[in-house]
C-alpha cells in the first residue's frame, strides 16, 4: 500500500514541483523513513498493521511522505548543483583535487575557487544536509516528527511510540 500518491503530492506542492517519475523514485525512500520511525522494538509496522482510521491522521501521514519526497528532491537538486559547480584542479605535485568554483570569466579565462568556510558550508538546512550525513538525518527525522507527533494509528497507538505494540495483533 502506498502511503501517498502523486496526486496528493501535486495537490500540496503544485504542478511546478517534482514530476511523477521522480516522485515514484523518491517515494520508496520516504516511505522507508516513515516505516523506520513508526516501527517499535517488536518490529510491528504500525502503518501496515493499522492505518489511521481518522481522516486527519491519515492526511498527516500522506503529508509527511509528500514533505519527505520534496525534501529528498531538494537534496538531490542541491547535490547536483554542487557537482556542477565543482572543478578538478591539478596541484603542482601532480595530485588532483576537487574545488568549488566561486566565479568564472570568459575573457582571458579566469577561474576563482571558494576557500575556507565558503567552500565547506551552505546557508540553508538543505545545503548543510547535502554535505553532512548527520544534518541530513536530522532534517529528515525532524520532518517525520513535525508531521507525525501525536498521530495515532487505528488502534490509538501513537505512530512514533517505539515500545512494544500494546494492542493485540490479529493474524
Report on the architecture of this protein.
This protein is mainly α and 171 residues long. The chain has a domain at 6-85 and 125-148. It is 52% helix and 10% strand. The chain is built from 7 helices and 3 strands; from the N terminus they run ααααβββααα. The protein has helices at residues 6-13, 20-38, 46-49, 55-85, 117-120, 125-131, 133-148, and strands at 86-90, 96-104, 111-113. The chain has a 3-stranded antiparallel sheet. A hairpin with a 6-residue loop joins strand 2 and strand 3. Helix 2 (20-38) packs across helix 4 and helix 4 (55-85) crosses helix 6 (125-131). Mean pLDDT is 83; it is low at 116-122.
Based on the model shown, name its key terms:
7 helices; 3 strands; 3-stranded antiparallel sheet
The overall average pLDDT, rounded, is 83
| SSE order, one letter for each helix or strand | HHHHEEEHHH
**Beta-strand level of the residues, as a percent range?**
5-15%
How many H/I helices?
A: 7
Residue share in helix: 40-55%
How would the global form be characterised? elongated
So what's the oligomer here?
single chain
Secondary-structure-based class equals mainly alpha
